[in-house]
Every structure is written in structure tokens, then in C-alpha cells.
Amino acid sequence: MVAPEYSNVATGYDEKDLIALIPHIRAFARSLCSDRSMAEDLAQDALASAVKNRTAYAAGTHLKAWLFTIVRNQFYSDKRRSWRAVPLDQKMAEETLVALSNPMAALELEDVSAAMRQLNDDQREALILSTVAGLSYEEAARICNVNIGTIKSRVSRARQRLAGILTTDGPIVRAAGRGQAMASLFAEANHLHAQAAA
């Protein structure tokens, strides 16, 4: 039972209505998650968020839709955070170590980073999400709030433009902070994640 301070006067919804929707919330969470315990955690987190943010509910609107939006947003927030918890890929780690032992690799990475700054925002965002952040096209499309075809097109055009920039005879203007290219790319990827979560 919800505590008395969370009565329908303060929240705009009747406590009984919220309790009656719990099975629907749990079912919706199960449809989003492949793991039953993750779905239960998602439903519980969403309900806690609904109670915590009770003043955000507009009285007279569809409570079930509001709760489902909370579940969905919580699911995507958890998904975006989970990309950092991916186990170490041994092959990728070995390739990274080889790249670090190559003195030209840092300069080449700085060139790529500088060339990426010349892309338009949409193309750079799509390319960073699908490469640096390692997200699938589907996840990148959700974050950018566009169709998957649009993301694929942006990534393709960004790669073509990037290749064109890197193969020109003109000099590439590097950022002032030498050796910071990878940190800069990861910072931008994290910024895009945080922006999407907000």
C-alpha cells in the first residue's frame, strides 16, 4: 500500500488505480526484457519513479499511458547505461595494444578525430553512436529519434565524407590538445548518451 502522504490529493491519481495497473506494468516490462528478473526490476523501478514523480502526472490524463511511458523510458535508460558494462573483448583489446605500439596510430587517430569535426552534426552523431559507442543501428535510431534507415544513411554518408576528407591532399587541422583524440571521441559519445537520457 502506498504511504498516506502519497494520497490521490497530492498525486492526481487514485492509489487504487495505480495498484490495479501493476499487473499491466509487469507484463509490459516482461515484453521489453528478455530476462524475467530484469523485467521485475524494471517494473519496480518504474513504479518507484511513478510514486517519486507523482506531481508530474496531470490529473485526468490516461494513467496507464503515463506509467507505460515511465517503464519505456526506464528501459531505454537502463539499456543506454548497459553498454558500459559489456565484458572485455579480448580480440579488440589485443588490437588496441598493437595500435598503441604503433607511433603513427596516435597521429592517424587525431586525423580521424579532426576530420569527424568537419562532418555535419547529424552525420557525426550517427557515426559516433554506431562506432565509438558501439551501439547497434536500432539503438542509435532510438537515441536520435529517427528511423533505422535514416541512421544507416547518415552513417554511410559520414563514412564517405570522412574518407574524402582523409584522402585529400590538403592538411588536416588538428586540435590543440595532442594525444587527446580518443578521449575526445569517447567524451562526445558519453555526451550523446547523457543528452539522450535527459
Average pLDDT: 76
The CATH superfamily of the largest domain is known as Winged helix-like DNA-binding domain superfamily/Winged helix DNA-binding domain
CATH architecture of the largest domain: Orthogonal Bundle
Return residue spans where pLDDT drops below 50 for at least 5 consecutive residues: 1-11
Summing up helix and strand content along with how strands pair, one would put the structural category as mainly alpha
**Count of separate DSSP helical elements:** 11
CATH topology of the largest domain: the name is: Arc Repressor Mutant, subunit A
* Strand residue content: under 5%
For the CA atoms, what is the radius of gyration?
22 Å
How many DSSP-defined strands? Answer: 0
| Integer count of domains | 2
Order of helices and strands: HHHHHHHHHHH
**What is the 3D form?**
elongated
State the helicity in percent bands. over 70%
How far is the first residue's CA from the last residue's CA?
30 Å
For the record, the CATH class of the largest domain is Mainly Alpha
Give the biggest beta sheet: none
Describe the structure.
- This protein is mainly α and 198 residues long.
- It has two domains: 4-84, Orthogonal Bundle (Rna Polymerase Sigma Factor, Chain: A), CATH 1.10.1740.10; 90-197, Orthogonal Bundle (Arc Repressor Mutant, subunit A), CATH 1.10.10.10.
- Helix content is 71%, strand content 0%.
- It is built from eleven helices and no strands.
- It has helices spanning 8-11, 15-20, 22-32, 36-52, 63-82, 90-101, 103-116, 121-132, 137-144, 148-167, 181-197.
- The protein is elongated and about 65 Å long.
- It starts with 7 loop residues before the first helix and ends with a helix.
- Mean pLDDT is 76; it is low at 1-11.
